[in-house]
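FAQ
Q: What does a multi-component entry look like?
A: The components come first, one per line:
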Amino acid sequence: MDQSRVRPGARPVTAARLLAMHRDGELVAGYRQVRHLLADATSEDIQRIGRLLARLDVEEVLQRHPDVPVVDVAITGHGTVAPLVTSLTAELARHGLLLRPYLSTFDGYVFDLADPASTLYAARPHLVLCVLDPMIVFDELSTPWTPSDVESVLARKLATLKQLVCTFEAASTGVLVLNTLPLPHRYAAQLVDHRSRARLGAVWREANTRLLSLAATHATTVVIDLDPILAEGVRGEDVRQSVYAKAHLSPELLAAYARPVGHLARNLTGRTDKCLVLDLDQTLWGGVLGEVGADGIEVGEGYRGEAFASFQRVVRQLGAQGVLLAAVSKNDPGPVRAVLTDHPRMALQDRDFVRVAANWRPKHENLAELAAALNLGLDSLVFVDDSAYECGLIRHELPDVTVVRVDDEPARHVEALLRDGWFDVRELTAEDARRAVMYREELDRKDFLTSFGSLAEYLRELGVRVELAAVEDADVARVSQLTLRTNQFNLTTERLQPADVRRRLADPAALTLAMRVGDRFGDNGLVGAVFAHRRGDALILDNFVLSCRVFSRGVETACLSALLGHARENGLRQVVGRYRPSLRNAVVKDFYPRYGFVLDGTDDAGTTFRHDLVDIVASPEHLTLTTSFPMSLEST
Amino acid sequence: MNTIDDFVTLVRDELGLPVTAENVGRSLDEIPGWDSVHLLWLTTTLEQATGNPVSLARALEARSLEQLYRTAVRP
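Then the predicted structure of the entire assembly, as tokens:
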């Protein structure tokens, strides 16, 4: 059940405020507020507001708010897919994004995706949703039919889909989203013997398995498994809409499907959350520690204690996949530390958290400090608390933080946290598994820093090692992820999918370099990348990306110095760099001029700088740099 | 849902379509922004509002919002 429905007071405010904005014609002007108003909305309201938002003129919204990120989504499929537009409009609005939909013609998916010259490809969508429904199979059967007939049709469809996926991979720079096929009861029940019915189920699921496997072998394809949604009790079809309007998936199913797609769009635009910040009392364990003491809190034992323990295990599961965990609690620090280190039934322990802030200060101050210490934007935090007051405070003081309110039923905490895929990514990398360790090392570095008189002395002692080398196949996922996750030190904020990175690796004129950094505290791993290409006697720096974890250590200076030197040694005459401002990358506005580049020009796409390779900045003395450049580049 | 005015308000507030009591009888094709998908949603909503089943096949044949209203509320 949707928990927000039992939250008193939330719904009327959201719905009424948005409806008033619609009636007053203020939705365009107030588009930025929509995101915050939808934060607490029920699924029902999201649908309702989606219908109103879908009527807005995208270009008008953009004119009013030029920096709202637009996501171009093409929707195609077998049946009527238009109802998806409203759900998707609202889901993207929840993330502060603006949907520009491209709706294909009815049953047009094969034509759309098979022809690289189709209007779908011409629209250059970031995302292509190819909505598959069971009628792609049953529409092709004649009566009477057997499970073997279904199997043959499924085999043909899978072969077609596989071809479409391959064509897509070559023709588009976007991401293709497929989905598994629900098996409607009204077809399964047409087989009167259990043996045949079981066989139908088997061939059907084999086809779904093969569909899901397409994602493993095709980097540009995502397959959404509808089974977990159906298992929650969402009906697969509205039979009247299927029969009369060819809308073969129910509106509720399409709405549920739109949610992970919204998170995919969030991920593609570099907005995936990175840190889960948890309250403790009544959120991670039952009871108030200050009142009942460590022995009295509910965790691991008793009905409620079991529920809290299973929530903790889910949090730990997320932490093991690269989500940073932190705790912010109004408590004395001593007892909290004691529970986190010694309590025998806690699934989560001190070492699972990158930071535990137990004090009596307002929570928004703790959250802001946490974000600063981890060098993350506030929009990277997800805050979970059972207190309406604390949730309201964070919404008010730090509107960019995602707030998840849990209630007094701990068995529902897991559902509340996982209802949205705040931490959804396309693919995990080796860095993800080590992320918490690396952030903890980073906090150790900060403590180490405070023990030194000067930064220079600190840096010398830190023993920074930097390796700049050509990107290899095994690095592709991580390099793509860096362009997607990095918002601050990202000179042009050009987001690259794994396939885009591969395209660069295959281009003889392109130079794609990875930066790896380590120091006495440990390895930071692959934390930066340079994307460049040669044109005539110039090396063009398309982008320069560095993770915020390794700021202020001279890493960028060392790499730029090496890159300029490499260009000069190869007989090039100049290096050109570009800066394109975004909401978050002002920190690198002067990156190129700081290192001897001169201003070359400014246009809508940003500012261009040029270096004549005469006077090249030296690499900082406190670090050791090793480079391994590929052979000389071809010119385009 | 007692009157056609209630219905017009529903269409304006829920679908964001510029319909008034005066022009509710015009052809669906003449309503700016009209999409046949709206019919599906309106039919479901009318069923919920009135508590009576509406024939979707009939509703899909409606040529105006007024006709749809009469099909659903005053069959």
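Q: Is there any commentary attached?
A: Sometimes. For this entry: The helical segments of chain B are 4-15, 36-50, 56-61, 65-73.
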